[in-house]
Amino acid sequence: MFATKTGAHLASAITKSAFQQRWSSAVSTSYRKTREMASLGGAEHESPSLVIFDKDGTLLCFHTMWIPWIQHTAQSIETSTGLVLFPKIAQSLGLCLAENKVKPGLLAEGTTGQIANEISSLLMDNGIKSFEAREITNNSLTNSYDKILSTDLVKELADTVALFTRLKQHGTKIAVCTADNRKSSLLALKRMNVDHLVDMIVCGDDKNTAPKPSPHNAIKICKHLGVDQSKAIMVGDTRVDMEMAHNAELGAAVGVLSGIGCKDHLHRADVLLEHIGHLVNTFYENR
Ligand SMILES: O=C(O)COP(=O)(O)O
């Protein structure tokens, strides 16, 4: 019902702003067609029953929170080891120091567990024993977490309260599926004033979960909320968000350009939006 697989390639030949207009109209046309066909067949147009949101880069500005986090972590590791490692850590996780921007990579797409493994391996490659490497990494990551949680590094990318309220008025369930830990995810949703509007949250450090792009978490959310996978859509800013949606056979993979991924990185998106503020216009008949 939500599959709007219009060609991502259409975009490549046109300029950015023209591209954005063309792309959204191409998407709407295709989506309209799907709806028209559905109503010709006597079926009512159906809006998504569930929207699964990625958190960082989709609801919140990625860079505002995660650049200070990795900077604190690297600083603490350098203090513990006496080695200059920040450039190597940045490179291995996908932080571009020249632009001070997070690029696609583990920092943007991985869980804290995956990031910890990467940093530990890097410390071992630099002569630190395995046990010590893990201990230094874990302590540095935890201290850095505590540091950023005590500051207000939540920068919203759209009016989340308005969007979530609108979705609820349409009877749509809302879930958040993030690589981030539960503690900071809950705090972020609370700071955004939307914690009471979210039906389910799946986080990177939850038991019985699997990192994106595994379909596991998306399927788990659909089952728990009693929604058929084809009636759910996934909204995210990275390749793994799009791949999780396809792997779980969700109704649509919706890419947003407000985070890490550019249009090339998000080439598997069925629908590409500037930011989540355009979601209702794209997917709902009565806005
Ligand atoms: O915590 C991260 O690194 C990414 O989190 P996200 O899955 O919400 O984008």
TrEMBL record:
Gene Ontology MF terms: phosphoglycolate phosphatase activity
Pfam family, one: Hydrolase
Leader sequence residues: none
GO BP term, pick one: DNA repair
InterPro entries to which the protein is assigned, alphabetical: HAD-like_hydrolase_sf (IPR050155), HAD-like_sf (IPR036412), HAD-SF_hydro_IA (IPR006439), HAD_sf (IPR023214), PGP-like_dom2 (IPR023198)
Superkingdom: Eukaryota
SUPFAM superfamilies reported in the protein's UniProt record: HAD-like
PANTHER family the UniProt entry points to: PHOSPHOGLYCOLATE PHOSPHATASE (PTHR43434:SF27)
Name this protein carries in UniProt: Phosphoglycolate phosphatase
Annotated source species: Caenorhabditis elegans
